[in-house]
Amino acid sequence: MKDQPPEGLRYPWEAPPAEGEAVKVADGVLWMRLPLPMKLDHVNVYALDDGDGWTVIDTGFSSKRGKALWQKLIEGPLGGKPVRRVVVTHHHPDHVGMAGWFQSEHGAELITTRTAWLTARMLTLDEQPVPSPETLAFYRSAGMDPEIYAQRAQERPFNFADIVEPLPLGYTRIKQGDSIEMGGRTWDVHIGNGHAPEHATFWSRDSDLVLAGDQILPSISPNIGVYATEPMADPIAEWLEACERLAQLARPEHLVLGGHKLPFTGLPMRMRQLIDNHHGALKRLLAFIETPKTAAECFAPLFKRTIGAGEYGLALVESVAHLSHLYQDGLATRRRREDDAWEYQRKG
């Protein structure tokens, strides 16, 4: 079914490229899609033609299938030319998963932000057979459903090393204010936050192209969560700041090439929607915690739909993020229950 854009957005392509194929979205810019074994069942990747080789933007999960698909893409749409550089927008596995393979097997240069590289490399080296005590304590503090908690306490947790290729030492750093030459264009680097720390986006000086990763998506909002690694993080504040800042760069004619869904135009309206959606969620949540609630009890006002088992973990960390933002913004109080769960309540 065609992905219906919000009002004011336009999708120049009604369908994504087929597996192993590419769609030309601009001169020297190819759009490809790789499968993911989850509800969000794909990630978009892009290849920019540098003449004697390609720069690839993001990579998909590491797997035998993923490597075979990349080999098919290199031999097919990429015309057998080498991938000389891999640019990773942020550290999440569907974006960095194959970067180490491109480095070790193809001799590609890895380009990303310092936080993305450090986080990805740390997580690939931090393999855990069972959840850490800190993770279990975090689940309890969020009021996780007891049955789900009991199951997760016994099973092997998600490990980066399962789907992210080992990252060799060495990368090239990009940061806010940098520019980079890719595909015959100069791109300005603007850093987002919230969904992932120090998330890189790229804005072409020479055309109306934006490589947005997951920072800007057309018909879904990226997950914004708090985790045991930094339980007092405030990614909602970071997200809103980044959206307001990036919105100042947006033009209606920009063609946004994101990490998921379809390329789109109408960026100024989409930035306003992304900002307003979170302000609306915070307003609903504040009304909902007139009486004390844990994070696990706050799915209804945030998501306005039933949360299944497959989505439970992402919903929980996003609920924690919104409640903690209200608490740190001075709009809510919290107290620790006897079962270690934090209960949040609207102030006053």
The biggest beta sheet, please? 7 strands, mixed
Distance between the termini: 47 Å
Low-confidence stretches: 1-5
Per DSSP E runs of 2 or more residues, the count of β-strands stands at: 14
Strand content: 15-25%
* Average residue-wise pLDDT: 95
**How many whole angstroms does the radius of gyration measure?**
20 Å
Q: State the helical fraction.
A: 25-40%
Describe this entry's structure for a reader.
By secondary structure, the chain is an alpha/beta fold. The protein contains 11 helices and 14 strands. Strands 1-2-3-4-5-6-7 form a 7-stranded mixed sheet. The relative contact order is 0.13. Mean pLDDT is 95; it is low at 1-5.
How do the helices and strands line up, and which of them pair or pack?
Layout: E1 23-26, E2 29-35, E3 42-49, E4 54-57, H1 64-75, E5 83-87, H2 93-96, H3 99-106, E6 109-112, H4 114-125, H5 133-141, H6 146-154, H7 160-163, E7 172-173, E8 179-182, E9 185-192, E10 199-204, E11 209-213, H8 235-247, E12 255-258, H9 267-288, H10 299-303, H11 312-328, E13 332-336, E14 342-346
Parallel strand pairs: 4-5, 5-6, 6-7, 11-12
Antiparallel strand pairs: 1-2, 2-3, 3-4, 8-9, 9-10, 10-11, 13-14
Helix pairs in contact: 8-9
In brief, what are we looking at here?
The protein has helices spanning 64-75, 93-96, 99-106, 114-125, 133-141, 146-154, 160-163, 235-247, 267-288, 299-303, 312-328, and strands at 23-26, 29-35, 42-49, 54-57, 83-87, 109-112, 172-173, 179-182, 185-192, 199-204, 209-213, 255-258, 332-336, 342-346.
